[in-house]
Design goal:
Elements (H helix, E strand, L loop, with lengths): L1 E7 L5 H15 L8 E10 L9 E9 L2 E9 L2 H36 L29 E2 L1 H11 L3 E6 L5 E6 L5 E4 L4
Parallel strand pairs: 1-2, 5-6
Antiparallel strand pairs: 2-3, 3-4, 6-7, 7-8
Length: 189
Amino acid sequence: MELEVKGRNISLTEALERYATEKVERIAKFFDDGNSVSRAEVELIHERNPAISEPEVADTTLFINGAVLKAREASADMYASIDLMADKLERQVRRYRGRQLDRWHGQRERHLQEETPQPVVIEEEAEEIETRIVRTKQFQMKPMSPEEAAMQMELLDHSFFVFTSADTGEVNVVYRRRDGNYGLIEPAR
């Protein structure tokens, strides 16, 4: 596993770097069975704004076979932030592993029953809001099913997820609806 620990607005001591590394490596050991963590990025940040009561932030991203898990926690002490971040990341890893097993069992049952559920397409009108772009992100989109995309969205704790459909090769969006269900946006053909 490639592990990078960076500091922003903080002098990164050897002890701090070692502590963060040990915590992330301990979590990466959950993936001994072929699902491997290919890369991990840890960023330790000190927020300079005096109005922020918890200025010590630990932000970690794990890249696992195309899936991405993120955890960000803040407190008044950097070691405490790293502990909180590691706990959150461990919960996400356990949830990810559980969903992987559930998905595997579900695919096996569907294969046996030869039933495939059809995704529900929901269209909602977008409101006209004047906005400005303050941040741009780029990421690789591996082809996946809408169910995989929904799982990835939940693991990242986002309200939507953009992905390439494994069936059509087109860009799709899965999103969480207010009623707790999911919606799928596909381009019109």
